[in-house]
Amino acid sequence: MEVAAEWVQFEIPYILQVEDSFEGNKAARFRSSVEGVPAELQFKKEAREGEEGERPGMMFGQVEGDRLGNVSYTKVKVGFDRQLLDTLPDDLDDDFEAVKEGGPTKWLKNLDGREGRIIRAAVDHVNQFLEVYRASLGYYWIRGVSPSEVVYFMRATVSENGDTYDHGTMYPGNALTPGSSTIDKEAHDTIEARLDTEHKVPITISLRLDAQDKLDLGEYRLAVITAGTMFEAFLKDGLKDLMTAQGMPDDKIESVFVDDGDYTSITTLAKETVPKTLHFDFEATDEFEAWDEKTREMRNRVVHEGYVPSEEEARAAYEAAADVVEFLTDKMIERHEKLRD
Length: 341
Prior knowledge:
It is a single chain. This protein is α+β, with helices and mostly antiparallel strands. Helices cover 45% and strands 18% of the residues. A hairpin with a 7-residue loop joins strand 5 (96-98) and strand 6 (106-108). This is Apea-like HEPN domain-containing protein.
């Protein structure tokens, strides 16, 4: 079958104030282009149904801040012609698994194959539209979506002679955890212990998870900033603990990090304070070099220049920060052990 077009349909958790264009109304459809690949976008507004068919809340309409689409939502169709299909390598394989044997729903385990790339392209086009729509109308609560948030995608292929082949519902995601699974005793005890303390979660853990969340959501600027903050918070806490263990007075410790109301730069802490406190040449390590180039410099570009990093740049920034945290954690443990001896 000679393919003429591919269509992807899914739901987004906002009601977009554009005219419905699924059935006719071609003038209300939008054309977009991402990395030179064009697409057609069609929208259809829907209301959530409550119990016994009753619509909740505001019935059918937009509620400011409704990020989950609990009141209303929008269906979107994204159509691609041969221009996208011709960019896909011929040898792309898809990794499928039936969610239910004999059922129409298939679990697409990753987005690396042909189907996955078409879905990813559709989400990219919709996210570009949402970014422009948000800025044009000032709707601060609207953001892009990720494939793992959408979950269900309807796919259709149109042949050159006009025949349509319905692929059924695609279900992408890297892992499917059974709903019947439960945490083990160790995880249960960890949660219980943290609930019983004043500081429930260490800031480094919170920031690490925040950075991972931003990467998954495609919010790459925030991912880079959070990765940089994660390392800085970790480093300051770790150095303060070591200085305390060495018997340094609190006021002297504070002066290392804040001088006359000005915070000491993270570069100074990394290049000067770490060697003095941990007794090794941090700047000469691969971990320092990776953090300096991929995290610190990228964060500065984002913060000071408004640079928008790519997914690869954001992931590299996070991974470099996570690696250096792990590296310095081992060094700090070693130093604490020497101080106790």
